[in-house]
Design brief:
With 259 residues, the protein is α/β, with parallel strands linked by helices. The protein has seven helices and 14 strands.
């Protein structure tokens, strides 16, 4: 597995601050292709940035808020009725993922929760501290602080020798350094510039704890207007929709610039 790329299909918050799409990252660790989170606008991001939904083998969900998993019903129904997918698809998320997905399907498209899927669909419940393997990619969840009606996870993906860490949504927790340690890429939530609201990270807190974050490269995501309006004061790389991050030999390179 010589080359891993991450395409940012959405790096916005729940409220489309700055006109950004909701959280979704496409990881191409050929031959394995995964989504990290699948916000309500995920299909828009895939169409806009040239990612074929049929290439996705696995969807990893950090937690069950709509801006992180609300795109899953649309992904499934596109596979069922438009592209007529036959390849297996795995959805992996916190305990409760199956029930929440069926509820979302039924609310959005009544009757769809009872569909007989034309493709093999597997739903895996992740557990903190237990590593699960999806193809050649192993995923280790860490529980973080973000109430969402089910456990909220940060995720650490090992793609061969390369590691991608993802904070999910959380306030500062002492597990974050363990998640980020020696990762080639740490995708880190930074909702606000100053501490607010609870259960989210902010730039001032991160700056004070920066020495504890041992990732080789960190990219901030999930930014509100409070953060976006102050990017001229931010000395850390920030994500933008459509960004392509390459991690050859465990060291990333950015196609584009901070915005």
């Amino acid at each position: 597995m010589a080359r891993v790329t991450v395409r940012v299909l959405g790096c916005g918050d729940a409220f489309a601050s700055g006109g950004r799409l909701q959280t979704c990252f496409f990881v191409d660790a050929d031959p394995d292709r995964l989504l990290i989170d699948c916000g309500a606008t995920a299909m828009v991001g895939m169409r806009q940035f040239g990612v074929d939904p049929g290439l996705v083998d696995t969807v990893l969900l950090s937690h069950l808020h709509g801006d992180h998993f609300g795109g899953v019903p649309f992904l499934l129904l596109e596979a069922q009725f438009v592209s007529k997918r036959t390849r297996p698809l795995v959805l992996a998320g916190p305990p409760g993922t199956r029930g929440r997905l069926l509820q979302a399907l039924e609310v959005l498209f009544p009757g769809s929760s009872k569909l007989a899927w034309r493709f093999p669909l597997e739903i895996v419940e992740l557990a903190p501290g237990r590593s699960d393997r999806f193809g050649a990619v192993s995923v280790l969840p860490f529980e973080v602080e973000h109430p969402s009606g089910a456990p909220a996870f940060a995720l650490r993906l090992s793609c061969g020798a390369q590691v991608i860490a993802y904070s999910g949504d959380t306030e500062w927790t002492e597990t974050l350094p363990a998640i980020a340690r020696d990762a080639d890429l740490f995708i880190l939530e930074c909702f606000a510039y100053v501490p607010q609201p609870k259960f989210h990270l902010d730039f001032q807190t991160l700056r004070a704890r920066w020495g504890d974050i041992g990732a080789r490269r960190t990219v901030l995501t999930h930014m509100s207007d409070d953060m976006l309006d102050r990017l001229d004061r931010v000395d850390v790389e920030t994500a933008h929709d459509g960004m392509l991050i390459e991690l050859p030999d465990g060291a990333g390179r950015l196609d584009g610039h901070n915005s």
